[in-house]
Write a structure and sequence with these properties.
Blueprint: H1 8-28, H2 31-54, H3 79-87
Helix pairs in contact: 1-2
C-alpha cells in the first residue's frame, strides 16, 4: 500500500521552479553546461506540470455530486430547454 500522497500543488511548484532554474542557467551560465541544464530543467519542469494537472482529485467533487453506480447522469436533464437557452430558439 502506498502511503505517499502526491499533491498537485507540490508538482506545480517543482515544475515552475525547474523551469525558472532552466531560464536562470541560460542567463548566468555559458556554453554547453547552460544548454544541458536548461534542456534538462525544461523537460523535468514540464513533466512535473503534467503530473500536477493529472493528479487525482483527493478531495472529491466540490459540488457534492456522486451518482449512483449504473445511474445515467443525464436523467432528469431537460435537453430541450437547454438547447433553447443556448441557441435562443
Amino acid at each position: 500500500m502506498n502511503n505517499q500522497r502526491s499533491t498537485s500543488g507540490r508538482d506545480y511548484a517543482l515544475g515552475a521552479a525547474l523551469i525558472i532554474l532552466g531560464a536562470a542557467s541560460l542567463y548566468f551560465l555559458t556554453g554547453a553546461t547552460a544548454v544541458f541544464i536548461a534542456v534538462f530543467a525544461a523537460v523535468a519542469g514540464a513533466v512535473f506540470l503534467l503530473r500536477g494537472i493529472q493528479a487525482p482529485d483527493r478531495d472529491g467533487d466540490p459540488l457534492g455530486y456522486s451518482p449512483s453506480p449504473g445511474a445515467d447522469p443525464a436523467d432528469g436533464f431537460d435537453w430541450d430547454s437547454a438547447y433553447r437557452d443556448s441557441f435562443n430558439r
